[in-house]
Amino acid sequence: MYTNNSCPVITRMQNCQGNGRPDREYESYRWKPSQCDLPRFDAKKFLELMRGKTIAFIGDSVARNQMESLLCLLWQAILPLQVEVPRNQGNRRMHRYYFRSTSTKIVRMWSSWLVHQTPEAIDFAPEGVTKVHLDTPDENFMEFVPTFDVVVLSSGHWFAKQSVYVLNNEIVGGRLWWPDKSREAKINNIEAFGASVENIVASIVTHPNFTGLAILRSYSPSHYEGGAWDTGGSCTGKTRPLEPEQMVKNDNIDKMHEKQMTGFLRGIQKKSNKSKFVMMDITGVFSYRHDGHPGPFRSLDPNKRTQDCLHWCMPGPVDTWNELVLEIIRREYEGKKSSSS
């Protein structure tokens, strides 16, 4: 529905064809659910459903990946042979694109963990190491939540980075940081992720001024082999999706997904406002798509040691996520329209 040449917002690291990737078959696979049909993305339909509304992608760099995919899908949306270039009205804090024909806004806000973080010293954790407050939502985006009609949340991968976990102003764990071996950490990074999900879901479903639609996109699977992103991990030469019998169990991805699901279910039970919250579970399906990452083609120099087996080529599998988002929005808004009429 677009190419790396037709969409100018593709980040260099996701522009696999522009970086010299020789194969293209990965662009053409579509996911077909076994019990329903997933319609092809209809840009005009999306903009009509979102007329006068704002959709916000909030989270890490995978959220940016999905937001840029949506922009590319919408870029040539309005009339055949007529390109509508959305206006960028954003700033460093909030990237905003505006489609004038339907007054639709596409927003992206950065939030590494979706919860509050601070570098200040706490107890035996010195200044400089990031403190992640698992029970406090990130105020940098929460103040804007009531202004959004649809919110798509993305997190998880930053829990692999160095950080200190704080609950009720008490240090309860850490990742790549725990200097005092005489103290026992109460939670690990996977449990910390689950706690953060529960908190952010609860914060949104109890927000007195949010009445929109929230979507939690489940943990995006990576496909590093032979190491991590910074220790020589690779996904070179993957040109087709995995077959079921080729799937190898990944304990870390499975546990992150499980804790995210548990956190979501716990958080949603606290609902007190008129919002709707949906879990969009992509983890299992996209575990097959080891062919969809940039790998060595994250830059024009394929000989670089560091590969990207986390983000997704554009065009590529990430576009299906926005087909799912459109279907969720369609069911929500068309359902409301039919019930009100």
From TrEMBL:
InterPro entries: TBL, TBL_C, TBL_N. It is a single-pass membrane protein. Keywords: Membrane, Signal-anchor, Transmembrane, Transmembrane helix. Residues 38-327 form the Trichome birefringence-like C-terminal domain. GO terms for molecular function: O-acetyltransferase activity. It is found in: Membrane. The keyword Secreted does not apply. One of its GO terms (cellular component) is membrane. Belongs to the PC-esterase family. TBL subfamily. PANTHER family: PROTEIN TRICHOME BIREFRINGENCE-LIKE 18, PROTEIN TRICHOME BIREFRINGENCE-LIKE 9-RELATED. This is Trichome birefringence-like N-terminal domain-containing protein. It comes from Linum tenue.
